[in-house]
Structure formats: C-alpha cells, structure tokens
Amino acid sequence: MSHSRWKTIRERKITEGFTEPAEVAEARYEIRLSMALAKAVHDRRTALGLTQAQLAERAGLTQAKISRIERSDTVPTLPLLAKLARALDASLDISLDDDSTRVAFTAHHSDAA
C-alpha cells in the first residue's frame, strides 16, 4: 500500500470519528519525540559540517551510537544529551506541551568563525 493511500485511509478514519487506542497514541507520541531529537542532532551536526565519526569523537561516543540517535533507535540519557550539546557547541532546548513538541540545539556563538 502506498504512503498516500495509507494517509487517505487514516484521514478518512479520523473524519469518521475513529479514535486510536490510548497505547497506540502514546507510542505515536514517543516516536515523534524521538524523531524530533534525531532531526535536531542531525541538523546541528550537518550545520557544523561534521561527520557522525567526528561528532562521536568530540562527544566521547562511538559513531554507531550517533547513528542510532539520528535514526531514533535509542533514547539517550540526560548525561548523554549533555555530552552531545557540548560536542555540538550548543544548548539543547526541549519544549514539551500537550499540543506541540520542540527540540532544538541553539549555538553558543556564531558558526561563521
């Protein structure tokens, strides 16, 4: 089944009043959080022009660990997130709300140096 067909079926179910089970909704929320972090790490790393191996070296991690984070295959601990933020020369900003989630790395200084 193509993605567009799946999306159409899902949208039709929603408009017909279908509600997904609570555990499915929770899993979907957790996946969105993980994907938001993965995108933030990838975006900041590429903005700095770093490879996964270079970021791993700066953070004291393995390239495989960076890859798992960027693929949303792992849930990093707070100490690991602190290492990533230092290695990316940025602050990690996470905003969690019922309606929206924001995960971003904010540079400590200009990257243009």
UniProtKB/TrEMBL annotation:
Entry protein name = HTH cro/C1-type domain-containing protein
Q: Which residues form the HTH cro/C1-type domain?
A: 41-95
Annotated PROSITE patterns = HTH_CROC1
Q: What keyword terms does UniProt attach to this protein? A: DNA-binding
Q: Which InterPro entries match?
A: Cro/C1-type_HTH, Lambda_DNA-bd_dom_sf, TransReg_Diox_bact_type
Keyword field contains DNA-binding? yes
Under Gene3D superfamilies, the record lists: lambda repressor-like DNA-binding domains (1.10.260.40)
